[in-house]
Amino acid sequence: MSEGDRNDTLLNLLAGVGIGALVGAAAALLLAPQSGHETRTQIRGTADDVLVKLRDTVEEMRGKVDEMVASLKSRGESGESASAALAGNGANEASAAGI
């Protein structure tokens, strides 16, 4: 196979892929069950819902971290080290659970 034949084959392949992409995009637009405006509105609404849930989760996690930090600071002020406070917290939870 000569260099020219390879270039022609590559060009034909790229042309076929390009034409296929255009035909596929046109078919998707013509056969879509809703208008572009409706699709964009739906995507925007879903994105807003995800952002609200993400913010709620971040705020909830932030509250839990703040509680843990405050608990560790109060135990640290009473003379316990942070690792002892964590170990004690785990032991307290285990005894409360009846383990």
Topology:
Elements: H1 3-31, H2 36-77, H3 82-96
Task: Please sum up the structure shown.
This protein has 99 residues and is mostly helical.
Structural features, described:
With 99 residues, the protein is mostly helical. It has 2 domains: 1-31; 35-99. It contains 3 helices and no strands. It has helices at residues 3-31, 36-77, 82-96. The longest helix is centred in the middle third of the chain and has 42 residues, at 36-77. The protein is elongated and about 80 Å long. The termini are far apart.
Structural class category:
mainly alpha
Beta fraction:
under 5%
Taken in chain order, the helices and strands follow as HHH
- Distance between the terminal alpha carbons, to the nearest Å? 77 Å
Question: How many structural domains can be distinguished in the coordinates?
Answer: 2
User: What is the tally of beta strands?
Assistant: 0
Number of helices: 3
- Overall residue-averaged pLDDT value: 76
Please mark out the parts with pLDDT under 50 across 5 or more consecutive residues, or reply none.
91-98
Mind telling me the C-alpha Rg? 31 Å
Keyphrases for this structure?
87% helix; 99 residues; 3 helices
